[in-house]
Design goal:
- The chain is α+β, with helices and mostly antiparallel strands.
- The chain has three helices and six strands, in the order βββααβββα.
- Bound molecules: zinc ion (ZN).
- Zinc ion binds next to helix 2.
């Protein structure tokens, strides 16, 4: 399973994933940060409520391909150790709605 396009909206902090089968996923950058599977984040989550680690203002500042396997996100907090396999992203279902809408005034 591979995505056709990945588009990250820095204004809203939402990653838009369009899969080759036409399925579309919208995942907030803060949510993805909270799902990082690196050893550091995994051990942090053992000690804290994962929801506490979700910060709405966090942004993905760069996306680097990891072969055909997945991507590595660089986050605005400097964290970039986590690799996100495509199959992992595909299974993510964001329950936490960080923002219902954004108003620019
Ligand atoms: Zn991590």
């Amino acid at each position: 399973m591979y995505p056709d396009t990945l588009h990250n909206n820095l204004a809203t902090g939402v990653l838009d994933v369009l899969w080759k089968d036409g399925e579309r996923q919208q995942l907030s950058n803060g949510f993805l940060r909270s799902q990082c599977q690196c050893s550091i984040c995994r051990s942090e989550r053992l000690h804290k409520d994962a929801a506490l680690l979700v910060t709405p203002e966090i942004r993905i500042t760069a996306i680097q391909p990891v072969g055909a396997y997945g991507v590595q996100f660089v986050f605005s907090d400097g964290h970039q150790r986590g690799i996100f396999p495509w199959v992992f992203i595909r299974d993510l279902d964001e329950q936490i709605r960080l923002v219902s809408h954004v108003e620019i005034v």
